[in-house]
Amino acid sequence: MLRLALPLFVAFAFAQTVPPEQMRINAPYVTTPNIVVDAMLKLANVKRSDVVYDLGCGDGRIVIAAAKKLGAHGVDIDINPERIAEARTNAQSANVAHLLRFEINDVFDSDIHDATVVVLYLLQDLNLRLRPKLLHDLKPGTRVISHAFHMGSWKPEREMIVEGNRLYLWTIPAP
Ligand SMILES: C[S@@+](CC[C@H](N)C(=O)[O-])C[C@H]1O[C@@H](n2cnc3c(N)ncnc32)[C@H](O)[C@@H]1O
């Protein structure tokens, strides 16, 4: 009984003490269809010289495609160790693991400063909360691509729909 009661009490106490605007729900695991992955890489104009970060990488397919098809380097970050294990195995199967780095981390705690392209497929609320970090950490000229979720007042440079999936592109401006 105590085993059940204690976690419930901790969750309840957390809900009482964390202000609503600071509560965060992590994005669920849903993969981007491969045809949409290709469209995202094209929209960001990913090249061999790019370093592509997927913040919440799932099975790693976007960064793996960028490495396999375009020769780009990349970093796969996910809060779930199972996803990172899967992404690593998939990269090895695709013979691109040497171009990639894998990190178990919360996107808000990750070091993303050397990205030239950032890919997001998270949640609307997470995108909005990520904006200060993206502006602070990323170099001017870094492209940010989001699948499905916008950035509020950030007007996208380009927006398109691929098989029902909405994609957005922004470029980090000079300070
Ligand atoms: C919708 S899936 C997208 C997977 C992949 N990027 C794709 O487009 O196919 C979201 C992923 O983000 C991860 N995730 C959710 N919240 C996260 C957080 N705060 N930090 C890091 N990863 C997170 C989940 O574990 C999940 O794998």
Structure description:
It is a single chain. With 175 residues, the chain is of the alpha/beta class. It is 36% helix and 21% strand. The protein contains 5 helices and 7 strands; from the N terminus they run H-H-E-H-E-H-E-E-H-E-E-E. The longest helix has 16 residues. It is globular, with a radius of gyration of 17 Å. The protein starts with a helix and ends with a strand. The relative contact order is 0.15. The N terminus is likely disordered. S-adenosylmethionine (SAM) binds next to helix 3 and strand 2.
Mean pLDDT: 91
The number of domains is: 1
- Which percent range describes the beta-strand content? 15-25%
Globally, the shape reads: globular
Secondary structure tally: strands: 7
Class by helix and strand content?
A: alpha/beta
CATH architecture: 3-Layer(aba) Sandwich
Describe the oligomeric state of these chains in a short phrase.
single chain
What does the largest sheet look like?
A: 7 strands, mixed
> If helices are DSSP runs of H or I spanning 4 or more residues, what is the number of helices?
5
Top CATH class: Alpha Beta
* Share of residues in helices: 25-40%
Which fold name is given in CATH as the topology?
A: Rossmann fold
Summarize the structure in short.
The chain contains five helices and seven strands, in the order H-H-E-H-E-H-E-E-H-E-E-E. It has helices spanning 2-17, 34-43, 61-70, 81-93, 124-137, and strands spanning 51-55, 73-78, 100-104, 117-120, 143-147, 158-162, 165-171. A seven-stranded mixed beta sheet has the order 3-2-1-4-5-7-6, with helices on one face.
